Amino acid sequence: MDFTTDDIATLPDPAYAVVACRLVYRWLDDKPAFLDRVRHVLAPGGTFWVVTEVAGRRPASDPRKHLGITAAEAETLTAGWSVVRTADLDVLRCYALRP
Ligand SMILES: C[S@@+](CC[C@H](N)C(=O)[O-])C[C@H]1O[C@@H](n2cnc3c(N)ncnc32)[C@H](O)[C@@H]1O
Q1: Number of C-alpha atoms within 13 angstroms, CB side, residue 96?
Q2: What's the CATH code, domain 8-98?
Q3: Is 24 in the pocket of ligand 1 (CB under 6 A)?
Q4: Taking a C-beta distance cutoff of 8 angstroms, is the pair 78, 97 a contact?
Q5: pTM over 0.90
Q6: From the CA of 48, how far away is ligand 1's center (Å)?
Q7: CA 34-4-44 angle, 5° bins
Q8: Among the atoms of ligand 1, which is closest to the Cα of residue 51?
Q9: Rounded to an integer, what distance in angstroms lies between the CA atom of residue 36 and that of residue 54?
Q10: Taking each helix axis from N to C terminus, what angle separates 71-78 and 31-41, rounded to the nearest 10 degrees?
Q11: Which phi and psi angles does 71 have, rounded to 5°?
Q12: Is 37 exposed, middle or buried (0-12, 13-18, 19+ CB in 10 A)?
C-alpha cells in the first residue's frame, strides 16, 4: 500500500509491535503526516525502526549525497517519542523509536 495516501484502516490489525521503515523515510513528502500514521498503527510499547541515510556523510562530489535526510528532517522524525535510540552505520543511521 501507499502508506501516505491509502486507507490504513484496511490493514488487518491496527496494533503492530514493530513498524520497519528502511530507506523509505527520505522519499516521503509529508513526513509529519506519515509519522502520525505510524503512531496510529503502532501498538503501545511497540517500536518504530527506521534506517535512513543522513546528510553530510558523503563527499561533496558524490552524486548520491542528496539521499541523506537533513537535520530538520531528523528532528521531525525523533520528536515526540518517549524513547529514541540511534546507531550509526557508515552513511546510515538506525533509529529505534518508542511511543
Ligand atoms: C530505496 S527503496 C527501499 C526498499 C526496501 N525498504 C529496502 O530497504 O530495500 C524505497 C522504497 O520506498 C517505498 N515508498 C516510498 N514512498 C512510499 C509510500 N508512500 N508508501 C509506501 N512505500 C513507499 C518505495 O516503494 C520503495 O520500495
Answers
A1: 9
A2: 3.40.50.150
A3: yes
A4: yes
A5: yes
A6: 15
A7: 45
A8: 8
A9: 21
A10: 20
A11: -60, -40
A12: middle
